């Protein structure tokens, strides 16, 4: 989460894959290598308009050698799609986001996050993921999903959790969900299984055309499935984090199909060592400029604040907000424009939960307090939800004359107090504490004689699950043998 500029979901102006014009390319061209098309001026204009908005939503673009490398590989694979034969027609961006995600939009715009790149183990996997995303555009999947379900838009981690766990499909749920979509970091356009299979096959086709090992699609899907399972275990929840692998559903079930399509005897380059050397130094996990989650604690060195989630809850840090999730409630920490009136700020947060033509949620009396010396105001409103009721709370803090921040939480009726400890944990942090917050970095080393998965895992910059994290990061198993000279990824400070 970063300081408020234009925090809410309209920072992407309602952009979705559904809202963008679709490249007019015949299905046969996308799948069988027909005549190369030219990206239309309309598609280029639409993509150019969406691009800066998506950058703002996903943490901005990385720069430097790693970004240039990803851009080069992305353009090389994109021209295999038939959308255009000119590398210059594609804009490939490495996003500063700690979420495993990748996507493409019409107009030649292709994106992947640094976190997803860090999970990959060779260049062919990078090309395969980007080729898969270009394949969705080439096959016009967005337009087909639009006709099937026009409500699909850009939504976020918490929005997915809320709609499936607490809110159902009720009107109240749909309205409340709007508030939790603010500051989302994930494009969760749901493709059908058939479309995912087709995009996998297109990506594999592009890999073959470019001379890569087409089996890379199955190996990266395996890594994504393993990362999803690890995330679920670490969070103590069966609610896996929505990520590239869940917006592109069920990677585990696609591994065998991808391998069969590629052919087990397939050949091609992987450029493993080159890839690992080129991505070494990437920021891994949260960027301190957006705040850092460590277990149940969130610290933002730039905003000079910190808080702690309740026992049994986990947090996911986004570019614009921190999402808090547990079995007994969901929440978000974010910000909005502040004019010095904390009561008005709280009421505006409730008002922002409903659509323009719907009745506004009335929070009633706004209560005042102080939390660790910080002026605060809060209110809870009970809202009907599919025959039952939920409690929605806004708890806001005034940090100075022009900046305020707030929690927005939802629980079953009568359960709002589960977040009281979190509200009371908000505090200012010292300059010394802020300076101590350091980013984690991806470091690629060369293994020496005697190194094992266990000894190398102890160098991971975590206090928990070091071995599990190490194995998933490197695509290894507990029985894997490390050989001298082998390149290995570590996460360090």
Automatic annotation (TrEMBL):
Membrane-traversing stretches: none
> LysM domain location, by residue?
443-490
Does Protease show up as a keyword for this record? yes
Q: Which InterPro entries does the annotation name? A: LysM, Mito/Outer_Membr_Metalloprot, Peptidase_M48
The record's GO molecular-function terms, alphabetically, read: metallopeptidase activity
Report keywords, A-Z. Answer: Hydrolase, Metal-binding, Metalloprotease, Protease, Signal, Zinc
Q: Which residues form the signal peptide?
A: 1-26
**One Pfam family hit:** Peptidase_M48
Cofactor(s) the protein requires to work: Zn(2+)
Please give the name of this protein.
Answer: M48 family metalloprotease
Q: Which organism is it from?
A: Novosphingobium aquiterrae
């Amino acid at each position: 989460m970063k300081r408020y500029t234009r925090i809410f979901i309209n920072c992407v102006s309602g952009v979705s894959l559904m809202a963008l014009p679709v490249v007019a390319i015949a299905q046969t061209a996308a799948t069988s290598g027909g005549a190369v098309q030219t990206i239309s001026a309309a598609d280029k204009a639409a993509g150019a308009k969406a691009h800066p908005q998506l950058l703002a939503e996903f943490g901005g673009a990385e720069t430097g050698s790693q970004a240039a490398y990803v851009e080069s590989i992305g353009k090389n694979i994109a021209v295999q799609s038939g959308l255009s034969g000119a590398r210059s027609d594609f804009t490939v961006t490495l996003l500063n986001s700690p979420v495993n995600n990748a996507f493409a939009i019409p107009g030649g715009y292709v994106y992947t996050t640094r976190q997803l790149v860090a999970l990959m183990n060779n260049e062919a996997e990078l090309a395969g993921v980007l080729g898969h995303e270009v394949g969705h555009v080439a096959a016009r999947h967005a337009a087909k999903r639009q006709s099937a379900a026009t409500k699909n838009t850009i939504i976020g981690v918490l929005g997915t959790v809320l709609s499936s766990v607490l809110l159902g499909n009720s009107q109240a749920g749909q309205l409340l969900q709007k508030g939790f979509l603010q500051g989302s970091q994930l494009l969760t356009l749901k493709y059908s299984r058939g479309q995912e299979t087709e995009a996998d096959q297109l990506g594999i086709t592009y890999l073959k055309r470019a001379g890569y090992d087409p089996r890379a699609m199955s190996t990266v899907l395996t890594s994504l499935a393993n990362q999803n399972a690890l995330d679920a275990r670490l969070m103590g929840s069966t609610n896996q984090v929505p990520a590239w692998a869940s917006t592109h559903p069920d990677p585990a079930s696609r591994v065998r199909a991808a391998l069969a399509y590629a052919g087990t005897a397939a050949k091609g380059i992987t450029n493993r060592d080159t890839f690992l050397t080129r991505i070494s130094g990437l920021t891994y996990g949260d960027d301190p400029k957006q705040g850092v989650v460590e277990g149940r604690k969130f610290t933002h060195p730039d905003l000079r604040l910190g808080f702690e989630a309740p026992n049994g809850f986990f947090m996911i840090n986004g570019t614009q907000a921190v999402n808090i999730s547990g079995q007994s409630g969901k929440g978000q920490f974010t910000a909005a424009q502040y004019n010095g009136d904390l009561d008005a700020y709280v009421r505006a947060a409730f008002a922002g939960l409903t659509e323009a033509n719907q009745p506004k949620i009335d929070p009633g009396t706004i209560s005042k307090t102080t939390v660790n010396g910080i002026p605060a105001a809060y209110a809870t409103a009970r809202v009907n939800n599919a025959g039952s009721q939920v409690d929605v709370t806004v708890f806001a803090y005034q940090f100075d004359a022009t900046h305020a921040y707030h929690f927005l939480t939802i629980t079953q009726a009568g359960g709002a107090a589960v977040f009281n400890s979190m509200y009371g944990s908000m505090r200012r942090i010292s300059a010394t504490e802020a300076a101590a917050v350091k980013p984690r970095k991806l470091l690629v080393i060369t293994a020496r004689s005697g190194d094992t998965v266990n000894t190398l895992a102890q160098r991971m910059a975590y206090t928990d699950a070091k071995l599990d994290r190490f194995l998933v990061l490197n695509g290894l198993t507990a029985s894997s043998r490390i050989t001298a000279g082998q390149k290995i990824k570590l996460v360090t400070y």
